[in-house]
Protein 1
Amino acid sequence: MSYGYVQRRGQLQTYFDRTASDAWARLTSTEPVSKIRATVRAGRDTMRAAILGFLPADMSGLRLLDAGCGTGALSVAAAERGAEVVAVDLAATLVDLARQRLPSQLNGGRIDFRLGDMSDTALGDFDHVVAMDSLIHYNCEDVIEVLAGFADRTARSIIFTFAPRTPALSVMHAVGRVFPRADRAPAIEPVAESRLRRRFFAEPRFRGWALGRARLVTSGFYKSHALELRRL
Ligand SMILES: C[S@@+](CC[C@H](N)C(=O)[O-])C[C@H]1O[C@@H](n2cnc3c(N)ncnc32)[C@H](O)[C@@H]1O
């Protein structure tokens, strides 16, 4: 992994494990939040439903990696479809919360929570990998590197989200950098969809893979784009 990846991963661990863990716990709960955060919560719910719509309705016997699982909502939904989930995250606080929130019944599925890096090959092989809003802080080359690593050990599909680079969003991020705040999240790295697609087709490690479904979700301050990679 690149030096930039390792450095960014360290910032994200500090941010999600400490700086923002309370805010994140609240955002992912049903407790009231500000109007702005409510739009983000609604957008994230829509995105999670869209991603689940890309996965089989019956996941009995299928292995899924929830890469950057946070507080575990997607893992629970997949396990309730019967999947054997490995849910990995850098932030111990969020993984603990995910464990506490685990429903007593998972309909035959299982979740194995792990603390660590999503790209660790020791996590094993999978039928499906989902990285919802967990690669949005890494630059395009690092995203391609992580996805290529997943491709080596995934049998069916990889679904990930990226922050689409649009002129309006670029301006917002540029303005944001002028006003640093101590508790600011590590910058989101917007990526142009055309660049991601070009890199995908140019990368030999994606031979045998095709781009599948896509879904853009915009809700207030939340803007995220899901892309599916499918093994041919
Ligand atoms: C925006 S949150 C999304 C969490 C969850 N996927 C969701 O949608 O609710 C991003 C998560 O990715 C995790 N993360 C970022 N980089 C990671 C890495 N290299 N390995 C494992 N987890 C990572 C962060 O710790 C954080 O919990």
Note: The chain has a mean pLDDT of 92.
Protein 2
Amino acid sequence: MSVDTSFPSLRDRSPEMTGAEIAQSLVPPRQFDGATLESYRPDPDYPSQSEAVERVRAFVASWGPRQGGLFSRRRRGAETRPGIYLDGGFGVGKTHLLAALWSLAPGRKYFGTFIEYTALVGALGYQNTVKTLSGASLIAIDEFELDDPGDTMMMSRLLGELAAGGTRIAATSNTPPNALGEGRFAAADFLREISALADRFEIVRIDGLDYRRREVEGNAVILDDAGVDAGLQSIDGDVASDDFAGLLKHLSSVHPSRYVKMVDGLRGIGIRDVRTLTDQSDALRFVAFVDRLYDAQVRIFSTGTPLDQVFGDDMLAGGYRKKYLRAISRLVALTAGRD
Ligand SMILES: Nc1ncnc2c1ncn2[C@@H]1O[C@H](COP(=O)(O)OP(=O)(O)OP(=O)(O)O)[C@@H](O)[C@H]1O
Ligand SMILES: [Mg+2]
């Protein structure tokens, strides 16, 4: 077997991020640059999708341009709550709609995953985070996590303070453990956990099929070593290549909030000798890594076990089933040759 030395390794990327850098990175991932309410194509089989677009539109309209004097705003915005929560299964376009909403918000605004906001608080401290974010028109939180009660409470308090200052909040659901069946209970869990804020949120439920699977059918593409080399060489931009075991080890040494910087600027990665994961911590870190690859639209070229089989049957039967299924959907999309 030839040892590849021609591509850089992700293991040489162990980034630190300052609070200021994290705050600067709080914009939608590049792949959602073009996401608008108009480019969201509601599936006619799932009426909740077109309804979701309308409700996001209404949420945005209450910021609308001031017309007809001082008191018109009050009339227009009377029905709108300060928060909106998009709840649904994976791939139904929650992040797309959140990014579209963010781009319509006036003035200073932020967009990040729950993990990124907790990393910001970790880097700046709570009070400085409040100072940094306050006065924004909108805080968009993609994939609100309920896994860690401490983080959830902290975020709930932070959002409460910001909302009191007039900032509006938009969030999407993550995939809580054990929520089989497309996250049917996510909205209830969310409301319970943010109980102090619950009545400020409008819940928008989005049903449907994984949009990525509408176009990307089938399995993750699997290659041999030469295929990985050829794939990486075909990429216009920075690439990296690693063996799967080494990559997992590296992921365990970098905080998941920094994976975003680890993959920054990459256009493609090679992963050699993929094998089915047996350790749950490895698997969850790999999921977080895949999320960042997906956000940055980094193409994946791999050898060994097809990446859609990287989570064993035991794992898929367990509490994090939805997270793993979503990661598979993303892996299939990233290994498919498209542009
Ligand atoms: N109805 C739709 N019309 C057009 N594009 C869509 C639609 N639904 C999803 N997409 C696109 O499909 C991809 C996946 O959607 P998105 O990431 O927004 O889904 P999601 O609900 O956030 O999924 P996940 O649970 O994985 O976070 C994105 O590129 C998005 O722009
Ligand atoms: Mg999403």
Note: The longest helix spans residues 280-296.
Protein 3
Amino acid sequence: MAEDHFGEHVAEGYDRSAADMFEPAVVDPVVDFLADLAGGGAALELGIGTGRIALPLARRGVPVRGIDLSEAMVARLRAKPGADQIGVTIGDFATTRVEGRFSVAYLVFNTIMNLTTQDGQVACFQNVAAHLQPGGCFVVEVMVPDLQRLPPGETVRPFTVSPTRLGFDEYDVASQGLVSHHYAVAGGNLDVVSVPFRYVWPAELDLMARLAGMTLRERWSGWRREPFTSDSARHVSVWEKA
Ligand SMILES: C[S@@+](CC[C@H](N)C(=O)[O-])C[C@H]1O[C@@H](n2cnc3c(N)ncnc32)[C@H](O)[C@@H]1O
């Protein structure tokens, strides 16, 4: 079973610390994109969390189900209006099965990298394929590993630097791992959270998809279908089940 890094302490502050990601300008294009792919069918969110995407997607009329490891995150989702429309199963999204056939499954906000082994990521694609109807799609939003910007011999890349927040990724290139460190000062207290990830290349994801019987249908650098280029820092990829 994967390790739960979203316990009570993280869950309690999640919506607050990720407030920017809950803005309509961020959420609406994601929901548009997914509702379009669902095309009248149902959606499955892996790592549904506190419902940032699932709740507005369900409000659009798309039947949504979710999987998440964290009871604490899901408790926040269940306390929100509209959550009674969304069935959630507690478990590891690499292996947990839920009832139903889906036209779209999605895994956003870098969460594929929470699976810290290649075997886990491969199993996740296979699990998704088992839930999709033929022609159904798997959508992943994830960063492009930042190695292009990592000077030779160095291991650390900052992603947030402000008087009250410091965030940096610590790369271990040999194991294709990184640890994201978050330091935040609030009310005179220092809050420190470090989460392990496995970074993963777009082409490696394409191969995982192929192993699971899916092929790449679209790759963009954002939810508004911005072109994916050599400079893109992240991608939104869609694989289709044969
Ligand atoms: C960064 S949060 C994203 C939550 C939500 N998708 C969003 O966009 O706000 C990652 C979520 O994935 C869940 N998660 C991480 N690894 C998981 C795993 N192996 N199986 C199931 N859930 C997992 C965490 O508990 C957490 O709720």
Note: The helical segments are 8-17, 24-38, 54-59, 71-78, 118-131, 202-211.
Protein 4
Amino acid sequence: MTAFGKLIRTTAFRLTLVYLLLFALFAASLLGYFAWNTRRLITEQITTTVNAEISEVTNIYDHRGLRGLVFTIENRALRPGANLYLVTTPTGQAIAGNVGSLMPGVMASSGWSETAYRRLDEQDTAAHRALVHVTQLSGDFRLLIGRDLEERRRLFGIVAQAAQWSLLVVVILGIGGGIFVARRVLQRIDAMTGTAQRIMAGDLSGRLPVGRSGDELDRLAENLNAMLERIEALMMGLKEVSDNIAHDLKTPLTRLRNRAEEALAKSGCEADYRAALERTIEESDGLIRTFNALLMIARAESGQARGNMDDFDAADVASGIHELYEPLAEDDGVTLRLKTAPAPLHGNRELISQALANLVENAIKYGKPTARQQPQGSVVSLETKQILIEARREGDQVLISVTDHGPGISEVDRKHAVERFVRLDSSRSLPGSGLGLSLASAVATLHGGELRLDDARSGLIATLTIPARVAAGDRVPGQTQDATQKVA
Ligand SMILES: Nc1ncnc2c1ncn2[C@@H]1O[C@H](COP(=O)(O)OP(=O)(O)OP(=O)(O)O)[C@@H](O)[C@H]1O
Ligand SMILES: [Mg+2]
């Protein structure tokens, strides 16, 4: 398609044409109305003055007879101006006035008519037009009084010319403006198309150009850019996941395979085989757990889990997790405390429970005071052997946190720790796949919130900060109920 063809096909250009047509119609009707009304006014003016003159002249005729009439008419005919007079005898002979010739039949019929005429003193010039009135006088004499219509014609001419010019200007400006606007729009659309093609060709980092005017195209470009950003992030995530899976799952799978091979090669007794099989099952369970965690993260990150959201109280989730992990914590020699206040949420209950469970598991696993924190011989204080699960509402946020008194995570490692498959050096001796915090973080993001890792007085405080559900019937954050007593 040629550039011009593209131009006239744009919505901007077509819209301009429509507006142009509407404007031209409007201008034409305005001018038409003006012209018609002026013409009516001039005609009205002529008829009133002519009528007045007729009654004046017939009065003179009635009182002073034909001589008076002829005298008056001759007098008036001499005055300069657009006035026309003619008096004819019953045989049709002109006896007074300034009209030289008329269209045939005008004098024969009484009343108003428009006619072409020539003045008596200008035989050769072209005929003019006039509005005349013929009156039948007594004795079959006829009197014509009229006005030249030149003024009306000139005025009409001016209006017609104005209409032509304004139409021309409107058309030129309209088409010029249309081309200008359409070209600008087209340039921007072409730039967008170019970027889109680059992105389709595989360069996901491409972004649509955003102007400074903040118009609808800019807003569209901004939104599309936000979408591209999200797509890029998802693609990167996907790539990262596949890389991670390839790297991190290869090791346990290889180990599994080697163990099986080793067991076969040894050709031991049934007990050996049994032990090898049991280890294989254990290892496989670990792998399945890792896969499940990965799937859950993927579900949270893709936003798929959004379909499964309902209203609930985070305090209930916290007490559920507290109940579930209490025996485990006790076996480990720590006390799990619970502190909740109403914390209304709208979200995926299953995912939030899993995220909190991951934080609690971490606190139990890594949150024990280290030897450095508790020098030999010192008595381990009761507080340091406690893990606190809290859920409450703070302003328009719901905070679900787990506080422990272990070594914590150093400032530099915090960002790193939430990445997939990342396990800090200090905890490599403990079982785990490095996905717990990733899932917690993905779940927080899914709900429009975040996972924060902060220093507790000693240890770590991991907090899920999620926007609270706002509904008319929401309870205002109430009294904190401390469940410590229940635990003790
Ligand atoms: N409460 C904590 N105190 C100290 N370090 C922690 C704590 N929680 C997490 N970490 C560190 O962050 C790392 C990442 O934690 P994450 O929960 O993601 O993985 P994991 O616990 O190692 O494995 P998984 O949770 O998948 O079984 C841990 O390996 C640990 O080094
Ligand atoms: Mg963990």
Note: The radius of gyration is 50 Å.
